[in-house]
Amino acid sequence: MRLQRAEQERFAAQGFVGPFDLCSAAQMAVWRARLRPLLQRHARPPRGVKPRSDGGQVRVLSDAHLYEPLVWDLARMPAVVERLASLLGPDLLLWRSVFWCKQPGSGTVGWHQDLFRSEGKLAIKTVSCWLALVDTDRAGGCVQLLSGSHKRTETALGIDSPYATSDREVLELPAGVAAEDRVAMELRAGQFFLFDQLTAHGSGPHHGETERVGLALRYVPADTAASFQRPCVLVRGKDRSGRHALLRNRPTALNRWRFEARGLLRRWMPR
Ligand SMILES: O=C(O)CCC(=O)C(=O)O
Q: Which of the four pLDDT bands, split at 50, 70 and 90, describes residue 264?
C-alpha cells in the first residue's frame, strides 16, 4: 500500500497524486449514512460566508475526528496512512479534519493554497487526503488542482485569497496558468487523493442533484517543529519528540462538549 516510486515522483512533480481506493462505493454508502446525522446537525457555512436562503450552500465541519469515532477510524485507515508514510516518513500525526459539503446549486470554492502557519511561519508541512463520501465529478463540483503550483507562491500564481467560497458560476483559471495544468479530480465514492499544502486547488459550482461531500484529513510528520493548539492523533509510528499533546483513545461524543467548553473549537478553527 506504499506509494510506488512513479507515484512519489508524480507527487513531487504535480503536488498531488491519486485517485486511490479506500473502500468500495457500497461500503462508503454505509459510512456516509452513519455520518449523515453528524453533518446535518453540525456542518455550517464557513466563517464569514452568509447562509443562503435558497439552499445552494457550501457547509463545513472542522475537527470532528476529535469527538466522532467514525472520523477517527477513517483517518487511521492503512490505505491512507501507509501511502502518506511514503511521503512524510514513518511517524505521522493527524492535526486537522474538515468535511466539505456542497449542496446542489452551490458556487465555487476559489483557488487557494493551504498556507498553514505555526507562530506566523509556514512551518506546518502538511499533506492532505481528500476522501470522497459520494461520487464527485466536474459537473458536481469536484476538487480541481493546478499541477506544479506547489512550486509557486500565491502571488506568482495570480490568486489572491487564502480561501473563499462564492456564488460564482465558473472557477476561472488564474491568468498565466496553462489550461493543461488544471486537473479535475473526479472520484467515485470511497476514493481519495493526496495533495501538498502548497498545491493550489478549489472546486467549481455544483450542478448535480445531491449533496457533494468530501472529508479533508490533514497530516504532518510527528517530528514537525510546529506547535498545535489542539490535540493531534498519532496515526502511525511514534511521537519521538514527546512535544505534542495527543488524543490517545478513540474519541467519544463527550469530547465535543469538552472542547466547546474550553472555547477551543470556535477560537482556533478559521473555517
Ligand atoms: O472540497 C472542496 O471543495 C475544497 C477542499 C479544500 O479546499 C481543501 O480541502 O483544502
A: low
Residue 87 and residue 127 in contact, taking contact as beta carbons nearer than 8 Å: yes
201 close to ligand 1 (CB < 6 Angstrom)? yes
Which pLDDT band, with edges at 50, 70 and 90, does 49 fall under?
confident
Q: Domains (ranges, CATH) in the chain? A: 5-268 (2.60.120.620)
Asked whether the beta carbons of 56 and 106 are under 8 A apart, the reply is yes
Distance CA 133, CA 116 (A): 25
Q: Which of 109, 124, 197 to mutate to test the pocket of ligand 1 (most atoms within 8 A of CB)?
A: 109
The Å distance, Cα 3 to ligand 1 centre, comes to 23
Q: What is the DSSP letter of 263?
A: T
pLDDT at 271: 45
The angle that helices 5-14 and 78-88 make with each other, rounded to 10 degrees, is: 70
The three grid cell numbers given for residue 128, joined into one nine-digit string: 492532505
Q: What is the pLDDT of residue 103?
A: 94
- Sign of CA pseudo-dihedral 94, 28, 30, 43: positive
CA of 242 to the centre of ligand 1 (A): 31
Mutate to test the pocket of ligand 1, among 39, 61, 100 (most ligand atoms within 8 A of CB): 100
- Residue reference for cell 478559521: 270
Alpha-helix residue ranges (DSSP H) falling in the chain = 5-14, 25-42, 69-75, 78-88, 154-157, 254-261, 264-268
Global pTM value: 0.93
